[in-house]
Amino acid sequence: MSRRTLKLGAILIGVGGPGQHNTWLSPEIPGNASVDIRWYIARAQEAEAAKFDLIFIVDSQFITPDSPNHYLSRLEPLTLLSAVAVHTDHIGLVGTITTSYNEPFNVARRLASLDHISGGRAGWNVVTSGDGGTAGNYSRDEHYDYATRYGRALEHVGVAQALWDSYEADAFPRDKQRNVFFDRTRQHQLNHKGEYFSVVGPLNLERTPQGQPVIFQAGDSEEGRDLGASVADAVFTHAQTVEQGQAFRADLRERAAAKGRDAENLLIMPGIFPIIADTDEEARAQEDAILGGKSFDRALAELGRPFGWHDFSRYDLDAPFPEAEVAEAGQRSFRTHAEAIKKLARDNHLTLRQVVEHQLQAARSPFVGSPLTVANEIQRWFEAGAFDGINISVTVPSDFARFTDEVLPILRERGVVRDEYESTTLRGNLGLPIPENRHSAARGGPDQADPAPTSPSTGTDATTPTDATAPTSPVLVP
User: Fold this and answer.
1) Across the strands, what pairs with 214?
2) Cα separations in angstroms, 259 against 217, 225, 249
3) Cis omega (within 30 of 0) for bond into 202
4) Which of the ends of the chain has fewer CB neighbours closer than 10 A, N or C?
5) By three-state DSSP, how is residue 223 classified?
6) ∠ CA(254), CA(165), CA(169), 5° rounding?
């Protein structure tokens, strides 16, 4: 790419995620938006018309009656994205899949299938499952501890990446005149035996249009940051100030460089929630109305999620925050978030009621105002190095349209956002290189993954010289 430009993602969350208690009441949102594929397709097409790089589907697999509305009933990410793929042409398709409750072979196959279906637009948001209750849905008595979760995640991603290299790009000449369908010297068995997984391979699916799906990662703990620096192409996070964003980006890039990676190829893309109105005053009033409309009781219940859905309603709201009672509650859930809440209460001597009220107000967005104000703030963060891209929560279509129709033109005129798609693949549009197939690299041969395939027959002729000594059991690179 000729210059650094802001990357754009759209998080599609139907009837509303955490803290969005009344989102579903909008007349623009069908009551069943979270399970209506037509709603997702329409939002994806709107994002594609605005030249967004990707849509982002978050996921979890454990709920309670107090879970956010969208979480209570929503479509499985890769099933959803496969349907969206055939109704779009350029936009990336990123889905959340946990490494704690999936096997690498199935994950590699499903993502590679989405990459083929979409022509090279698949992405994987790697998570380890913060909701400890998920264990009960997968025949386990308790959730994995942090060390195990992140150890599994690192090995899981490494195995999936090795499986995606099962075939070199020229493995299928499909030459009917010579009756040569397949070059067996370009297929490689894995034979992986690790601490958490044992996978023979090879994957029964040829090399994908972008070589490998793009890896996203979400997690702010020390273990999460280290995993992102090890395997991610892009990191999904949150930041409330420019300084927080700068510090997070610098830390992740330093970690990546220490692992021998090119830090320039690690993108930081936080989630943001812009609120746009004709004037700054109107936008702030709109934000106040949103925050004021939130249910205290619902927020009290949601406070339990980082603590393994601990029931805080049992405590006196005006007594000190019950830190001792929840000392161990978040150790196998969202530990970093839980520890931050406890520290906030401890340092400021807050009651439980004050903690809930703080959580309600903490959701204030830095990106609130007129289209010019919001554009200026996004540009300020971007040019200050606080992020490389943004993921925007999409619920009410008219609110999203204010961003695409009024904010983006300002950023485009200033050269912050590109005018058109520059590639047919997600990697290409994000400015990320295609990973070299390890077996092609080992034999010194070309790696011919085509970033813009026109048919399933992509590949070179079977008469390409081969190296019979090419390794068949690659070493996983952490």
Assistant:
1) 123
2) 16, 12, 16
3) yes
4) N
5) helix
6) 115
- Greater confidence, 310 or 453? 310
Q: How far apart are CA 468 and CA 183, in angstroms?
A: 12
Q: What residues does 396 pair with on adjacent strands?
A: none
Contacts of 410 (CB under 8 A, 6+ apart): 371, 372, 375
Question: What is the reported pTM?
Answer: 0.85
- 8 A C-beta contact, residue 84 and residue 46: no
- Determine the 3-state secondary structure of 24 from DSSP: helix
Residue 322: which residues within 8 A CB-CB, separation 6 or more? 312, 315, 352
pLDDT of amino acid 414: 97
pLDDT tens-digit readout, 35-59: 999 999 999 999 999 999 999 999 9
pLDDT at position 478 over 80:
no
Residue ranges and CATH numbers for the domains of the chain are 7-274+366-430 (3.20.20.30), 281-361 (no CATH)
**Encoding tokens for residue 438?**
């390890």
Residue 215 neighbours by CB under 8 Å, 6+ apart? 123, 124, 126, 157, 231, 232, 233, 234
